[in-house]
Amino acid sequence: MKAFRKEVLVAVLILALAIVCGSGIQFLLTLQEIHRADQAADVLISETLTAVADYGNAERERCAAAAERMASLPQVKQQRLDDLHLELLMIVNPWSPLPEGYAPELATVVGDYLMDSRCAALAWQMIQDCSAYSGGLPMICSAYRTQEDQQMLYDNKVIRVMLEEYAPYEEALVRAAAEVALPGTSEHQLGLAADIIDEIYPYLNNFQETMPTQIWLSEHSPEYGFILRYPNGTSEITGIIYEPWHYRYVGEKFAREITARGITLEEYVAWRRGR
Ligand SMILES: [Zn+2]
Fold first, then answer.
1. How far apart, in whole angstroms, are the C-alpha atoms of residue 235 and residue 232?
2. In this structure, which of 178, 187, 207, 222 has its CB flanked by the most CB atoms within 10 Å?
3. What number of other Cβ atoms are within 10 A of residue 134's Cβ?
């Protein structure tokens, strides 16, 4: 009986030893695997960094070469290139409706919001940078609109004016148009405009201008090619009320120039035509 117990004890000890050794080996193998994965990640990171640096260098060289080619072009051709960008200055206001059948190439800004593919990524970059540096919470609340979208917004506004201001229908049509553009005359249909507000104060009224988002955007939007399209006191020229939330893409060069001059898009285009 004693001998039997001893055998059992030895067997248990051997089993315990085997389990401990097995776990130890497993542990060492896992460590080795982690080490290998770590080394592979290091190689990948270093390869990626090299690729990014190479891309940056190539891009810089490409830009420098393009700038050199531009400078060597005769004046007339330079002007023609400049004119290509003028399409970005297209005016759409109560007196200048959208061209018939205008259909911009669209791209996603974020979520369901779309804009002209030439500015969608820039708009998103601007919003992200604003979020990082302004201390506000920028939020897009309108971007590209179809004719039907605009019609619905306008119809709703007419109804609200009639109900809230007790205006007769004919008068409501006119009053509504000062705040919501008539279908076919909204910049949002161009795909080049976005309404950006601060999540802290998500209302479309003049107080919006005091929000950190608007303070930052009014200063930095030209860096991304956008202008504050309807500045205070310009509604006689633009046909739209002061909208401290409505940003329009015109390209960086024009945006910087328009903002520096402190004029509206209408005035800038008139000035360019008269040059
Ligand atoms: Zn707008």
1. 8
2. 187
3. 19
The pTM of this model reads 0.67
> Residues 170, 243, 252, 257: which is the catalytic one?
243
| Distance of CA 40 from the midpoint of ligand 1 (Å) | 50
Give dist(CA 238, CA 182) in Å, integer. Answer: 14
Paired tokens of 192: 């080049």
pLDDT 10s digits, 125-179: 999 999 999 999 999 999 999 999 999 999 999 999 999 999 899 999 988 888 8
Asked if residue 103 is part of any domain, the answer here is: yes
Domain identity same for 2 and 110 = no
Distance from the alpha carbon of residue 253 to the mean position of ligand 1, in angstroms: 22
Other CB atoms within a 10 A radius of the CB of residue 84 amount to 8
Question: Could you give the C-alpha distances from 19 to 22, 23, 189, in angstroms and in order?
Answer: 5, 6, 72
Residues counted in the chain:
275
- 164 an active-site residue? no
Residues 251 and 139 in one domain: yes
